[in-house]
Amino acid sequence: MPALVRPAPAPCGQPTQPPRATWQHGCVTAATHSSLFPQVPDSADAVLEGLDPEQRAVATALHGPVCVLAGAGTGKTRAITHRIAYGVRAGILQPASVLAVTFTNRAAGEMRGRLRQLGAGGVQARTFHSAALRQLQYFWPKAVGGELPRLVERKIQLVAEAAARCRVRLDRNELRDVTGEIEWAKVTQTVPGDYPAAVAKSSREAPRDAAEISQIYAMYEQLKRDRAMIDFEDVLLLTVGILQDRHDIADHVRSQYQHFVVDEYQDVSPLQQRLLELWLGDRQSLCVVGDASQTIYSFTGATPDHLLNFRTKHPNATVVKLVRDYRSTPQVVHLANGLLNQARGRAAEHRLELISQREAGPEPVYTEYADEPAEAEGTARRIRDLIAAGVPAGEIAVLYRINAQSEVYEQALADAGVPYQLRGAERFFERQEVRKAIAGLRSAARFGDNDPLLDDVVDLPSQTRAVLSGNGWTTQPPAGSGAVRDQWESLAALVRLAEDFAKARPTATLSDLVAELDERMAAQHAPAVQGVTLASLHSAKGLEWDAVFLVGLTEGMMPITYAKTDEQVEEERRLLYVGVTRARLHLGLSWALSRSPGGRASRRPSRFLNGLRPGSSIPGSRSAVGGGGGIERGSGTGATKRGRRRSALCRVCGKTLTEAGEVKLMRCEDCPSDMDEALYERLRDWRAVQAKDLGQPAYCVFTDKTLMAIAEAAPGEAGELAVISGVGARKLERFGADVLALCTGQEPGGADEED
Q: Read out DSSP for 538-553?
C-alpha cells in the first residue's frame, strides 16, 4: 500500500487541504482532550475545521469504498465521526441511512455523543450485536413467527449444566475456557461435529480434549433449543440466516441503510464480516477503519485478514493512513515503534510508523523488583507521587495481563491511601447513587422554587452541589477507597460535569443539565470518575491516560505461557503495544524476579523488552538499541537486594515458605498454630470499626492472614510488630499504637485520622 493516498477533489467544491492556519501553524484541534461541550459547528465547512490533511481526506471521501489505516492516538474516531457529520451537514448523507458499527457499547456511546455534538444526532451508532438484535426483534414475527426466543442471561451456567449432563467435570477456570471455545466456534461458524477438525486446522490449543468440548457444545445447543433460548452469537447467526433466506427482508434493510462505517475493522470475525456483506449487498458505500498492529482478540475469532485484504477485494478503494500521533510524547511513541520493529508476520508487514505531534516528555521508566508485593507497593508509591505532583488519579492506570493480578495492586493502592476503580465494573448510569442523584436533580429542576436548598444559590454548579449534598456529596472526599469513596466519586463526576456544562453554556439551567444527562444515559456517554484505573490490557483497548504503569512484564506472563505458536506470541507483542500506546506522558514498565518475598529469583523480564530497556539487546545482536529511559531497582516491603535474599522459613518445622499467606504467618498452613484466639477476635472487632470509619473494606486495614500473624506473635513493642509481613511502615505509624495496646490487653486509643 502507498505511504499516503492524497484525497481526490472533495464533493461540493471542498478544498483538498484546509487553510494553513488550521493545521500547519499548530492550530489542529487535538484528537484527544477536546471540550466536553463544544459548540455545534454552524455549517458543513465548520465540521472540517481543525482536521489535519489526512483526517480531512477521510472526512471528505464520501463515495465508494474507503479504508482508513489508523495508528494508535491518531484521531481515527475523530476522523470518521467528522466524515459522517460532514456528509450529513453537506446534505450528501441522510442521517437515518447511515449505520456506524463498532465492538463495544462504550465505543458506540462515545461515537453517538460525538455525532450529536457535531450536529448529526440522527445517525445510528451501534455494536454489531446491538444492530443485529434490533433487526432480529423487528423481523422475527415476519420471518419465523411468534416471539423472539429469550436471550441466555448467564451462558456459563448453561455450559456447566451441559458439561454435567455429559458427565464431564470442569473447575471454574475450565468452565470459563470451554465457554470461550463455544463462542469461538460459533463466530467462526463451526458446528459441534466440526469443532475437533477446526481446532486442529487453526493450531488452536483447546483447554480440554476437543472431542469432549464438541460433546459439551452439542449438549449446550440442545439445552437452548429445549428451553427456547438464544445466546449473543445466535443473534448474529439468526440475523445472517434470515437475510440470506429472505431476500425481501434483506432488501428492506438495504433500503434503510445505504452507508456503512465499521470501526476497529481488524477485530471483525468471519460471522460479523458475513453479516456486513449481507447488509451491503452489491453496494460499495463502505468505510472501514483499523490497525492490524492492534489485533488482540483472535481468541474470540477476530482476524485482521479482512482489513489487510480490503484493497484486493476493492481495487478502487481510497486508502488513507493516519500516522500523526496526537496522544503520546515522542518518548512513548519511540518505544511503541521499537516494539513493532521487532514484530514478525503479515500484520507486522503492514505496521504504521507513528510520528508524535506532542512536545518531548519524560523517558519511560523500567523498574525491576524483588517480588510481586514489592512491585505493587513500588507502583503505588510512584502513583502517590504523581498525584502529589498534580496528576489527577483518574488520569492514571495500572495495566496487567490477567485479572488475577489486580488483587495485590488493590491492596497496595488502598495501603497508600490512593482511590482506584476496577475497569469492567458496573456502568456509570446504572449505579444506584447515580440514579438517585439524577432523580434528585430532576425533582429540583421541576420544583426548585419550593426547595430551601436552592434559596441562596443561583448558578448551575452551585445548584447541583446543593442538590447532591443531600445524596452524600461533600466538598472533601472521604478517606480510603471503599464503597463510600466510590459513591462520592460518582457524585463528584456529576458535579464536574455540571461545572463544564455551565462553562460551555453560561445560561444553562438545571432542566438543561437534566436533559443533557438523559441524552448521555441514552448514549451511555458517561462522565469520567476520578480514581486510578486497574484494568487488564485487553479491557484497556480504546482508552488512554496521562500516566500508565505496565506491570508483571515477565516471561510466562508477557508473553503468556500458553502462547505457543509464532502468531500467538506476536499477538502478545501487539497486546503490549496497545498497553504502551495508552500512555500520553508518563510510562512505567516493571517486573518482579519472584512471586513472593523470599522466593527464588528465577523470573526474567519479557523478551519483548530486549533491545528496548537499557542494558539489554536483541538476541543475536551485540549491543542494545537504546530506547531511552533508565532502569531502576525497585524496593518495597519485603524486598531485599538481589543476591542477598534470604528465604523465609517456617518457624515451626523449618521448611522454606513460598506462598504469600504462609510467609505472612511465618509458618506452613498445616503446621500447628499457637494463636491467641481471644486476641484475634479483639483484633477483628477493632478492624471492623476502623474499616467502617475509613469507608474501606476490612482487608484494607489488615488482611485476615496479617491479623492471624499478629495474634500468634502477640508483639509487645513496635519493633516486633514491624517485622510482621503485611504491617509496613505506613500501617505501623497509623495503627501500631492501637494494635500494641490490644496485644497487651489494653483499650486502643484510636487511629491517626490525619494520616
A: TTTTT--EEEEEE---
What is the rounded CA–CA span in Å between residue 337 and residue 1? 19
* Of 91, 93, 92, 95, the residue nearest 115 (C-alpha): 95
Query: How do residues 167-177 score in pLDDT, each as one tens digit?
Result: 988 877 788 88
For the chain, the farthest-separated pair of C-alpha atoms sits apart, in whole angstroms, at 87
Cα gap 732→740, rounded to integer Å: 10
Q: Which residue has the cell 486497574?
A: 534
| Cα–Cα distance for residue pair 160/487, rounded to 1 Å | 35
Least confident of 468-472, 474-478, 598-602: 474-478
Closest CA to 662 of 591, 712, 700, 715: 712
Q: Report whether pLDDT(11) > 50.
A: no
Average pLDDT of the chain, as a whole number: 81
| Rounded Cα distance, 357 and 75, in Å | 12
Segment 536-570, tens digit of pLDDT: 999 888 889 999 999 999 998 899 887 878 888 99
DSSP bridge pairs for 151: 230
Strand 583-594, strand 630-633: pairing: unpaired
Instruction: Collapse the DSSP code of 64 into the 3-class scheme (helix H, G, I; strand E, B; otherwise coil) and give the result.
Output: coil
- Number of Cβ within 10 Å of residue 104's Cβ equals 16
CA 522 to chain CA centroid, Å, is 21
Cell of 637: 516491603
Least confident among 6-15, 39-48, 86-95, 645-654: 6-15
If one counts every other C-beta atom within 10 angstroms of the C-beta of residue 723, the result is 10
Grid coordinates given for 520: 448521555
Is residue 520 within 8 A of residue 493, CB to CB? The reply is no
